[in-house]
Task: inverse folding
C-alpha cells in the first residue's frame, strides 16, 4: 500500500527527479507498463534469512530508483520456484521489475542470468530515457542469483551447520 | 532494508579521497556498478570520488561539446528528422527512424547516462587517468562509442574526441 503511494508520488514527481523527461513532448506509458503498474505481479517479500532465498537490491534513492528482487530457489533442482519484488521508482521501473519476477519463475538460475534488459525494454516498449530501468531490473536478477549462490557457499563452507 | 549504509565519507575540501567501496549502494554507484551486490568481496578497486562541483564542470563541458559537434554534424549529414536539443541538462538527439539518443547528467552518481538505439543504456564515470568518460562494464569511452555508433548509423564519420 505504502509502496504504491510512494510509486504514485514518484510518477508524479518524475520531471523533478534525476531521471529526465523529454521537454515539450507528451508521451504515455505503453499499455504493458500500465498493466504491470495497475496489476503488479509478485509484489512482496521473502524472509531474506531463509537459505533458499536470494535477494538482489539495486539502485539508490538519490537516483530515484531502487529495486529489491527476491528469488526462492529449489535446492535440489536449482530452479527458481517463486519470486517477489519491491520497487521504488517510476512506472517503467516498477513494470520492469514486475516483468523480471514473472520471467524468472520456473527457470534455472543459469538461464535467468541470460535475461537481457533489451528484452524487458522491448516487451514494455520503453522509451529511450527509460532503458535504464530495464537495465536495473536485469541487474536485480543477477544480484539475487549472486546473493543466493554466496549464501549457499557460506552454508556449505561451514559444513554441517546447525539451523539458525 | 538497509538501503543506505551508515558509513559516511568525508572528503577533504577540494581534494579527492580514495575509498574502498563495499556498501552502501551510492558508493557502488559512484564506481559505476549499476547495482548493489550484497556481500561484494574485497576484490573492488579503490576509486576517487569526484566532488560535485568538479563533476558539474567536467560534465557540462562534455555535454556542451557534444551538443556543438553533433549540431554541426547534423548540418552535414542527410538524416530525415534530425534534431538535437539540450534542455534541463538533458541532451536529446533524434535521428528520425534511426532512433533517439538521450544523454543526461546523473549527479548523485557523478555519472553521465546514455541511452542509445544501438547499445541501449550505459553509464559513464569520469576516469582521471584516461581523461575520459568510461563505462566500466565494457571499458567503452563515451566519445569513441558515440563516434562509432553515429558513423555506422548515419554513414558519415564524426570527430568528438
Result:
Amino acid at each position: 500500500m505504502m509502496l504504491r503511494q510512494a510509486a504514485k508520488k514518484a510518477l508524479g514527481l518524475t520531471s523533478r527527479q534525476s531521471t529526465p523527461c523529454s521537454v515539450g513532448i507528451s508521451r504515455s506509458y505503453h499499455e504493458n507498463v500500465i498493466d504491470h503498474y495497475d496489476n503488479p505481479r509478485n509484489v512482496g517479500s521473502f524472509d531474506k534469512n531463509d537459505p533458499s532465498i536470494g535477494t538482489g537490491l539495486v539502485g539508490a534513492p538519490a537516483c530515484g530508483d531502487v529495486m529489491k528482487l527476491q528469488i526462492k530457489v529449489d535446492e535440489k533442482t536449482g530452479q527458481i520456484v517463486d519470486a517477489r519484488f519491491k520497487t521504488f521508482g517510476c512506472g517503467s521501473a516498477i513494470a520492469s521489475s514486475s516483468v523480471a519476477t514473472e520471467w524468472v519463475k520456473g527457470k534455472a538460475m543459469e538461464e535467468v542470468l541470460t535475461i537481457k534488459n533489451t528484452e524487458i525494454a522491448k516487451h514494455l516498449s520503453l522509451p529511450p530515457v527509460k532503458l535504464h530501468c530495464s537495465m536495473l531490473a536485469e541487474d536485480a536478477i543477477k544480484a539475487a542469483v549472486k546473493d543466493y549462490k554466496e549464501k549457499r557457499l557460506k552454508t556449505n563452507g561451514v559444513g554441517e551447520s546447525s539451523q539458525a | 532494508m538497509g538501503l543506505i549504509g551508515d558509513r559516511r565519507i568525508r572528503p577533504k575540501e577540494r581534494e579527492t579521497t580514495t575509498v574502498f567501496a563495499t556498501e552502501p549502494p551510492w558508493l557502488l554507484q559512484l564506481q559505476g556498478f549499476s547495482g548493489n551486490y550484497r556481500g561484494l568481496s574485497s576484490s573492488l578497486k579503490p576509486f576517487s570520488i569526484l566532488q560535485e562541483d568538479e563533476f558539474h564542470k567536467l560534465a557540462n563541458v562534455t555535454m556542451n561539446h557534444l551538443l556543438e559537434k553533433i549540431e554541426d554534424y547534423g548540418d552535414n549529414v542527410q538524416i530525415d528528422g534530425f534534431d538535437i536539443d539540450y534542455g534541463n541538462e538533458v541532451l536529446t538527439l533524434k535521428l528520425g527512424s534511426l532512433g533517439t539518443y538521450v544523454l543526461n547528467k546523473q549527479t548523485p552518481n557523478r555519472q553521465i547516462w546514455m541511452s542509445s538505439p544501438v547499445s541501449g543504456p550505459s553509464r559513464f564515470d569520469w576516469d582521471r587517468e584516461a581523461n575520459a568518460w568510461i563505462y566500466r562494464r565494457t571499458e567503452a569511452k563515451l566519445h569513441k562509442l558515440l563516434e562509432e555508433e553515429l558513423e555506422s548509423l548515419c554513414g558519415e564519420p564524426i570527430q568528438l574526441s
User: Anything to note?
Assistant: The helical segments of chain A are 2-12, 31-38, 91-104, 109-112, 117-124, 131-158. Residues 41 and 102 of chain A are 7 Å apart (CA to CA). Residues 131-158 of chain A form the longest helix (28 residues).
